DNA sequence: CAAGATATGTCAACATGACTGACATAAATT
DNA sequence: AATTTATGTCAGTCATGTTGACATATCTTG
């Protein structure tokens, strides 16, 4: 049936592109890691996507719930930095989660303009269910990997992340800035 | 300014959810890997996203171009399997790439119903530019990791991917089925 | 050969989650 | 008192996904 040509790209030419742009230097590319990341992430988020349908939620709701649960008291502005979306876009999703009782807001103590976000028990349950699915996949993938190997994987993933202009959550993860995450 | 509570979740309660659903068993979760994957992938695809704007394309175009370039002669049906989208959705993106000369179709030799897809030099140049950005990030992230470490990372990513019902590209990557990728 | 299955393409309607721009309110800062 | 900041909201648009229906060419099968 299906007959892919396995010659791994660049069959047509490895010379010049249409506008004099050089064609990809295939040999130098990390096609392996690029594609593994694509498929690994596709299936990784796929776990949660399926479960979210039952709640009438999408990926956007998951991301918001996750970070609100993990970093209690997160401000709206912090969430915008982490998710890298606009407040209008966040607004809709956040409103739903508030209305349906997955998240509550508390006015900031020092700055009463701030709306600090917290997961309700209902929200915690949702996050836990989704994180459980993803943890199962991760645990399974790490089954035959020793602690040193896990450290290498962690090192690699950290090194893949932009370190310029880190948001508050990234500072927590990396332990930069003045504050340090209590590990 | 911003003051995240770093108590890493589950402050409100670790008991029962609203509907008797247990709250997440925080200690058992791989929050570290879950969040590292989120940020690593966000920045990984961010490289390409930025460049794609100059072409008036989006992520969807990138994914199509990538797999067409990498697996020359890919059928439309194979692409649908890999991307896990509908043909209507693929149709729009593919039509643009065909119209603008990034991809060409050739009628299948054995089965003349098939439209085998190939990247043009123009398409190759685009894929190469995007893969170059992503390769730079990967190479940088792997800088201090020895070959054994890279093998562990590869093993982990492979183990994160669903192996039931693999599409043609995954078969090529994993070397399952009768055909083996020439590595 | 006729009938059915397959590969692809297309029309129409719709949903989600992004976006920009403009504006409003309350509270903090200067 | 004036300005800035944090948040919320209205209105419109875009990209990318969806379902359902249908058309066309071609291959396969009885």
Short summary of the structure?
The structure is a homodimer of 183-residue chains. Chain A is mainly α.
Major sheet size, sense and barrel closure of chain A = 2 strands, antiparallel
| Physical arrangement of strands within the biggest beta sheet of chain A | 1-2
Oligomer: homodimer
Largest interface: A-B, 97 and 97 residues
Q: What gap, in angstroms, lies between the N and C termini of chain A? A: 53 Å
**Mean pLDDT value of chain A:** 86
Question: Could you please describe the fold and organization of this structure?
Answer:
Two copies of one chain form a homodimer. Chain A is mainly alpha-helical and 183 residues long. The first copy, chain A, has a domain of 113 residues: Arc Repressor Mutant, subunit A. The first copy, chain A, is built from seven helices and two strands, in the order ααααββααα. A two-stranded antiparallel ribbon of chain A has the order 1-2. Chain A starts with 30 loop residues before the first helix and ends in a 9-residue tail after the last helix. At the A-B interface, α1, α2, α5, α6 and α7 of A face α1, α2, α5, α6 and α7 of B. The structure holds a DNA duplex (30 and 30 nucleotides).
């Amino acid at each position: 049936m299906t007959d892919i040509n396995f010659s791994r790209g660049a069959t047509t030419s490895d010379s010049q592109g249409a506008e004099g742009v050089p064609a990809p230097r295939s040999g130098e590319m990390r096609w392996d890691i690029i594609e593994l990341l694509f498929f690994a992430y596709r299936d990784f988020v796929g776990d949660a996507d399926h479960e979210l349908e039952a709640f009438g939620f999408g990926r956007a709701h998951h991301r918001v719930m996750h970070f609100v649960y993990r970093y209690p008291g997160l401000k709206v502005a912090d969430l915008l930095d982490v998710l890298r979306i606009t407040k209008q876009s966040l607004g809709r999703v956040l409103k739903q989660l508030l209305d349906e009782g997955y998240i509550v807001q508390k006015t900031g103590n020092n700055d009463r303009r701030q709306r600090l976000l917290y997961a309700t028990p209902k929200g915690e349950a949702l996050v836990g269910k989704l994180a459980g699915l993803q943890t199962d996949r991760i645990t399974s993938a790490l089954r035959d990997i020793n602690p040193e190997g896990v450290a290498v994987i962690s090192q690699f993933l950290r090194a893949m992340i932009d370190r310029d202009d880190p948001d508050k959550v990234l500072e927590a993860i990396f332990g930069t800035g003045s504050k340090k995450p209590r590990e």
